[in-house]
Amino acid sequence: MSAPNKAYDPVEAATLSAGELQRMQADALAAIAAAANLDELKTARLAHAGDRAPLTLANAEIGALPPAARADAGKRVGAARAAVRAALVQRQADLEAERDRRVLVDEAVDVTLPWDRPMSLDGARHPVTTVGERLADVFVSMGYEIAEGPEVEAEWYNFDALNFPPDHPAREMQDTIFVAGPEPGERSGKVLRTHTSPVQIRAMLTRPLPLYVVSPGKCYRSDALDATHSPVFHQIECLAVDEGLTMADLRGAINAFVEAMFGEGLQTRLRPDFFPFTEPSADVSMQCHVCRGASAKPGGEPCRVCRSQGWIELAGCGMVNPRVLVACGIDPDRYSGFAFGLGIERSVMVRHGVADIRDTLEGDVRFSRAFGMEA
Ligand code: PHE
Asked: Where are the domains of the chain?
């Protein structure tokens, strides 16, 4: 073997051997084929065609070879680099085409969707459930307990105990769905409860005083289904019975609730109303959380959410009628109470700008998915 000469280092030259070059090329082609997306391809390009890539370094070594070996080495290195470049171009084109196909699918707009929020592809809870829980949480954080009652309810709880006398027209006011007449020996027939107020009665009859409860649940009325009415809907009801409660406490609870649910600083408005079980009774409106009342002022921009009224009707409320306290065995001279009740679908519609109550009912999973896991 001849002594190593400066211009020709056999160790370096070995890296330009046909076998070595083939291995470098094979490594590069394998890495390019394995790149599953454009980012991975970028990494493979740097590793196999970048400045420090084996084939690039091999190319730089050509100059150090004896002149006789250069042409051959140059051809082989050039061919290997060309093969790698071609593979990179091809893989880049394939991966870009794949990405474009995916974007077309992922970003397709389903014009039949009832709602224009981005869709979560995971499962989703229904907004009536999540908003209902959120409403209940607001009360629970104020120290209220959750109380529940049956949906098929005795007429006595749904009406009599709430101071609706048997022939009182207010019984019809709620478009009751009657289920069954009284069983022999019973005084009361069965109805699908028309509101969550019978849970007030159940709570007052069974729980110790003072009493702070909140009851969410399903209610039924023989309403025809349209954009704002549904024969089945959800209400949430708040009831407090304690010594010395006044309308100011009711107002305070309503304000705290509206601020927690719809936004700080929103005003509320109480206007006289009638419910047999509260006296005095009022209808609760809150300042529109979108325009904050500006749409109702002269020259204000119109507001879709409050129909430029500036206010949104939200709930019924009042001081528990002493007759209701008496029906539940509570001394009205010692205790007083307040109650308010509101529709959960209505809260969902107001909070999320849903225009049609039927969207909350029809069980189209795309509607729930639009809300993701959010409350
Ligand atoms: N139960 C009433 C309704 O369904 C709402 C309400 C609840 C009013 C509590 C006053 C107090 O219309």
From this structure: 16-106, 127-369
Regarding the beta carbon of 314 and ligand 1, being less than 6 Å apart is answered no
Q: Which residues contact 1 (CB under 8 A, 6 or more apart)?
A: none
What is the residue-averaged pLDDT of the chain?
Answer: 88
Asked if 120 contacts 373 with a C-beta cutoff of 8 angstroms, the reply is: yes
Calculate how far, in angstroms, residue 86's C-alpha sits from the geometric centre of ligand 1: 75
Please name the residue whose Cα sits nearest to atom 4 of ligand 1.
Answer: 195
Query: 109 or 284, which is more confident?
Result: 284
The alpha carbon of 254 and the centre of ligand 1 are apart by a number of angstroms equal to 14
pLDDT 10s digits, 291-339:
999 999 999 999 988 889 999 999 999 999 999 999 999 999 999 999 9
What is the value of pTM for the model shown? Answer: 0.67
Cα–Cα distance for residue pair 298/300, rounded to 1 Å:
6
pLDDT at 3: 45
Q: Which residues of 23-42 are buried (b: 16+ CB within 10 A; e: fewer)?
A: ebbebbbebbeebeeeeebe
Tokens of residue 44, six digits:
């493979």
Q: Describe the strand order of the beta sheet including 152-154 as a list of residue ranges.
A: 152-154, 190-192, 177-180
Pocket lining: 197 vs ligand 1, CB cutoff 6 Å? yes
Start-to-end CA distance of the chain, whole Å, equals: 82
Question: In the CATH hierarchy, which fold is given to the domain comprising 127-369?
Answer: BirA Bifunctional Protein; domain 2 (3.30.930)
- Report the DSSP pairing between strands 335-343 and 232-243: antiparallel
- CA contacts within 13 A on the Cβ side of 339: 33
Contact 257, 134 (CB under 8 A): no
Residue 53 neighbours by CB under 8 Å, 6+ apart: 28, 46, 47
374 pLDDT above the threshold of 60: no
Report which ligand 1 atom has the smallest distance to the Cα of 342: 5
The 10s digit of each residue's pLDDT in 55-68 is 998 888 888 888 88
> Which residue has the least CA distance to atom 8 on ligand 1?
316
